[in-house]
What does this fold into?
Amino acid sequence: MDTAVIEVERETMGAEAARGTPGTTPGAVAVVFATTPAAALVCGRTSLLERVTGQLRTLSVRDVQVVIRAEDTGGGLAEDLRAVAKVARASTCPVAVLHGDLVAHTEALAVLLDHPSRGSGALVAPGAATPLLPPVRTECGQIAAAGNSFHQVESPDATFRGVLQVGEAHLASLADVAEELADLAQNRRLGRVSDTEVAGLLLAGLVRAGVPVRAAPLGGLRCERVGSRPAAEEAIRRLADVDETGARLRAAVKSDDGLFATFCVSTWSPHLVRLAARLRMTPNAVTGVSVGLAVIAAIWFSAGERTAQIAGAVALYLSFALDCVDGQLARYTRGFSPLGAWLDATFDRVKEYLVYAGLAIGYAGTTQGGATGPGGIWALAVAAMLLQAIRHMIDFSYAGAVADAAKDGAAGNRPPLPLSVASELPRLDDATSGPFKGGFAGGRGGEFGVPGVPGGTGGTVASRMIGLSRRLDLGAVTRWAKKVIVLPIGERMALIAVTAAVFNARVTFLALLTWGTAALIYTLAGRIGRSLT
It folds into this structure.
């Protein structure tokens, strides 16, 4: 890189800032581009660039590297991208890319930069796309397509807010993408894309390369880029209109949770989260209380009497509510830990199987039966346990396979990026419908979403399945139906509680087996279809 064109100032964090938020590990190296005029705007006592770098110092960021272009040279976008590639090649921790013309709540930046996974992600929020806030399409909590002023995106549902983080496992992909985009920019093959779109270009390239990028929602928090002093002053004023603590609490609630968890728990669980935070309870302590309530539910169920069944159903509901609260508390306080994640996943299974045992004991104790209990209750209980074990095994093995594929791609085993094809897609500056009508139609591993383009979504049965799934996501009813049919843990707990309280354990197990089998077939078909695309 020509140092006469790009100057990188390394601002090393102090010891206190480097430690970051309690319970977390020091995170990313932040690359902040001060190459736009708005970054130098002074609002109040500081410039926008100084605001952003000051906020980064309060988060778990190891150091900040500010990219400044000398005025008498014309390296432009290509050299900006090569600066990112150089940092990515040298870094041993996540790399965050953002622009100095950003106006954001500190908590908004923390949604991404202080996330415990330290993985790849991008801040997104609903809103109209602009040249500074390009469109994206999200699917299942990930960025499925990302646009900019040159590339189209199909059916965008959010905008990219200018903050991108790339996890350590994907740094090689980041460097490759940045270098390839730099070559395209240098050869003037990216149309009117400017140096204000570095983060957006990188996001689009990473998605096209098949790198899984988490869509980090802002909730009620604000994060936007500005291009003028009036816009900057208005954006700063809007920051004060938001209760940052309240927005942080609302953001702690999962936006893509199941139907039962969303409407029957998350509507009131934030009050428990606030109370637990005031009492200085840890997420692990909340998990412990949740386990205790599940044990109580199993004991009540084992009594086999109607009143006891109802009491057990109530205890099971409260146990599940606290199971949601522990995760919400962890996100609210950013008190994440590997132990907490393991305890949460493990005890979800333990609680469920304890309840199965309690139900079977209670039913068997009220009626005489053979070796497997009355009505084969023990056989039904074991079958329900095995079915859930198989479903969990498929979920974890699929997630592991996706992670392994991502690591292989990051290690350089992925195919070359088909970026040259991007120049053949319709340019937005040629469109009659105005800028950002579309965007980058990219997807996983070079998927363009355009019939007839190599790697697109036309033709195969698997591709048609994925296309149908995407269309179903567009409707509120069908989207919720897709969530319910897979029988997530909230729906399972509700099914157990209602059938046990109103009917009996045999009905409970038959319902679990019937619905669980349908969910297994549906999920397995979807996983196979996605694996074949």
